[in-house]
Every structure is written in C-alpha cells, then in structure tokens.
Give the backbone structure.
Amino acid sequence: MMEPLARLLRQFSATTHREQITAELVLAASRASLLIVAGGALQSTVVPRYFRQGTLALSCASAAAAQETRLQATKLMAAINRRLGQNLVRRLTYQTALPNQ
C-alpha cells in the first residue's frame, strides 16, 4: 500500500525539481540574452523575474524600458531559446516596477 504513495512522491519531487531547475536556467539565459540583444541599455532596467509554463515575466524600471523590450521581444526570445537549445520561452510578460523590487 505504501509503495504506490512513495512512487508518487518521488515522481512529484522529480517534476518539481526539474521545473525549478528549468526556470533557473531560463532566468540565467535571459539575463545573458538581454545583454546580447539590447546591450547594456536594457540590462540595467529590465530584470527577469520568473518563468512558468512557457512565459517569462520581466520587471521593467519604466514604461519606456517595457516598450523597448516589447520591440525586441522576438529577438530576445530567439536568443534565449538558442542559448537553451530548445524553444522553452514562448511568451514574455512585462511589469513596470522599481529596479530593486
């Protein structure tokens, strides 16, 4: 009776860790890709916040930074996915916030 429960717990744990690791890899790739795609201009004003189910959330220091990132969205997603070696990022979302939040 306990064996099926233990198996389910192992599967759940493995899936959770895999998703966390994938999210961290996407965030690291997005930080590097921001520098490549937009140079230092956006890297200091746009911060990748989280990755879930194909969506990368970005925090932008201003509406202007968010707009510039939107204009570069296709290039940015392509650079991130190229760095990762697979098409994980399918959508970007933008939030205007203070840089230290």
Q: What stands out?
A: Strands lie at 46-52, 55-60, 91-96. Residues 2-38 form the longest helix (37 residues).
